């Protein structure tokens, strides 16, 4: 579906209370080209026609454009970032954390404009936009409170206690490349960028070409918060052009996106001998045990499955329900799903917004059509809704789906879920684990202890009990990431901060060289060393046993 020609202003933009064409143009001008200092019209000046159109999903209109950066632009941005990073790294961690804290205040202060921008770019509902935006200042609070401690020097036990010390420092890696996706463009860019910044790194962010304005708006607020020039920069452009150049130029890569692209990112990072963290695809299971309150579980499952029209890496797509609860749960779940409303207005009237574009709509339709042709039952939904918006699709519940169907095995990334009965909890866990992915899971039960026990058997990086994803994603002090084809590394928690650092161990001997002494016969020293080692092991074992007895282990 080709977007209609630009109107003045586009309908989607005219309806946004706090935005204008001028505002979007100002944001696009924040992208610096490598030869931007050349006079306009000169042979070396950037080609103004070399730009990417940005389309509003709510109306399929062109709302503006951003520069289509190339490898030279990326290298220039990284060079500027590297020059600025040295001084930023010398800034005390408490002062860096204070900048991030002020940024959180600014996000809250400018929330209405940011919400409009987020809806304009993604087509999501206002309710979903609020959920995303709130996560940014919440993360800032955690970093302001915890980052200085996580980055502080740490004393460790030396090789010979009393004779030598060991101290571990955490130094920034340098320049971090952040490649962020279109589905949650604000929070998923900042969830990677802010810990890197507070750790003393500079960041060059490449937002998805479909949603570039959010990262540009946040870069503006970071400057107002006191972040030095060039410490955070945004390069816009096609992923196939900008991505490889960025990976080749930086010291660490944080990527969020599809699994196949993630493999390419990891391979390129590996060739460059730089580290990376990858949050990739998922085909997330949700388990309903027989003792559950079906009405509560149905309401929770709706949130778990259909937030952001299912365009959420943590969203549940496979539901496994113990047979004793299957019929009443399915009835309640279908009822709650059918009650969801569709719309893209800048108010709080609607539950679900639009899919991002025609390609995503085609993927959703293909998965549903294939399942339907193979005998699946569409319990509710299953229709494209162009009367609401060009790419809107009804929230859809499927049953009687073959286990090897595409919709059951692959990530749909849309408002489509499959519900399957299973005989017991063990079968539910086996089905949940029958996947190459392992990002997020959910268990619903009246017995929380039983739910936690079942959760520990599911092979996912985060597992929620009686919640879809917020219990783990919102736990800012706990690591979040995937198993298997769902990625590498962790964001959030101290782990999410320290991933952007190089640890250095400094050992200091208080008695000079620690090798064989010159003034003792070698035989005496060897016998004494073995005796001391044996005695030390016995003492350590005794301490462990004592701790076990008094409940400290």
Distance between the termini: 62 Å
Strand-residue fraction? 15-25%
Structural class: alpha/beta
Per DSSP, the total helix count is 19
Mean pLDDT over the full residue set: 94
Helix content, binned percent: 40-55%
Low-pLDDT runs of 5+ residues are: 3-7, 38-43
* Molecular shape: globular
Q: How are the strands of the largest sheet arranged?
A: 12-13-14-11-10-16-17
Let me know the largest β-sheet: 7 strands, mixed
Radius of gyration: 27 Å
By DSSP, the count of extended strands is 20
Explain what you see.
The chain has 553 residues and is an alpha/beta fold. 43% of the residues lie in helices and 18% in strands. The strands form 5 sheets. A 7-stranded mixed β-sheet has the order 12-13-14-11-10-16-17, with helices on both faces. The model is unreliable at 3-7 and 38-43 (pLDDT under 50).
């Amino acid at each position: 579906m080709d977007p209609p020609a630009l109107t003045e202003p586009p309908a989607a933009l005219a309806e946004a209370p706090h935005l204008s064409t001028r505002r979007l143009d100002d944001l696009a001008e924040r992208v610096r080209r490598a030869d931007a200092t050349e006079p306009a019209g000169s042979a070396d000046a950037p080609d103004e026609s070399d730009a990417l159109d940005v389309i509003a999903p709510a109306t399929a209109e062109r709302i503006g454009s951003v520069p289509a950066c190339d490898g030279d632009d990326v290298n220039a941005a990284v060079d500027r970032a590297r020059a600025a990073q040295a001084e930023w790294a010398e800034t005390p961690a408490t002062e860096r954390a204070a900048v991030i804290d002020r940024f959180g205040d600014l996000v809250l202060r400018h929330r209405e404009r940011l919400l409009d921008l987020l809806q304009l770019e993604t087509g999501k509902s206002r309710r979903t936009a609020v959920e995303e935006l709130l996560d940014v200042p919440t993360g800032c609070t955690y970093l302001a409170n915890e980052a200085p401690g996580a980055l502080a020097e740490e004393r460790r036990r030396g090789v010979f206690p009393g004779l030598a010390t060991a101290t571990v420092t955490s130094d920034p890696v340098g320049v971090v490349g952040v490649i962020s996706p279109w589905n949650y463009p604000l929070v998923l860019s900042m969830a990677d960028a802010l810990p890197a910044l507070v750790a003393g790194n500079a960041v060059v962010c490449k937002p998805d070409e479909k949603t570039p304005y959010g990262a540009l708006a946040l870069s503006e607020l970071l400057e107002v918060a006191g972040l030095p020039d060039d410490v955070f920069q945004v390069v816009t452009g096609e992923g196939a052009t900008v991505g490889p150049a960025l990976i080749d130029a930086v010291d660490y890569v944080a990527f969020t996106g599809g699994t196949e692209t993630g493999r390419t990112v990891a391979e390129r990072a590996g060739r460059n001998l730089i580290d990376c963290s990858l949050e990739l695809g998922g085909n997330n299971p949700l388990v309903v045990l027989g003792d559950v309150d079906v009405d509560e579980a149905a309401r929770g499952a709706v949130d778990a499955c259909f937030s952001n029209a299912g365009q959420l890496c943590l969203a549940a797509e496979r539901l496994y329900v113990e047979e004793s609860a299957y019929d009443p749960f399915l009835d309640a779940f279908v009822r709650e799903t059918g009650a969801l409303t569709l719309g893209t207005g800048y108010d709080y009237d609607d539950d679900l917004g639009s899919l991002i574009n025609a390609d995503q709509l085609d993927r959703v339709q293909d998965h549903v059509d294939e399942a339907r042709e193979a005998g699946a039952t569409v319990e509710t939904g299953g229709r494209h809704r162009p009367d609401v918006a060009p790419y809107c699709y009804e929230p859809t519940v499927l049953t009687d789906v073959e286990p090897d169907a595409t919709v059951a095995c692959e990530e749909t990334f849309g408002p489509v879920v499959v519900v399957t009965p299973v005989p017991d909890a063990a079968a539910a866990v086996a089905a949940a684990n029958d996947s190459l992915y392992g990002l997020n899971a959910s268990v619903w039960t009246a017995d929380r202890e039983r739910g936690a026990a079942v959760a520990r058997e599911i092979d996912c990086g985060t597992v929620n009990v009686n919640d879809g994803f917020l219990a783990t994603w919102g736990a800012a002090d706990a690591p979040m990431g995937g198993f298997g084809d769902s990625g590498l590394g962790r964001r959030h928690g101290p782990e999410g901060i320290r991933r952007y650092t190089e640890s250095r161990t400094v050992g200091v001997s208080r008695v000079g060289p620690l090798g064989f002494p010159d003034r003792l016969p070698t035989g005496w020293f060897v016998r004494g060393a073995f005796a001391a080692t044996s005695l030390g092991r016995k003492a350590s074992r005794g301490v462990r046993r004592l701790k076990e007895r008094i409940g400290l282990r």
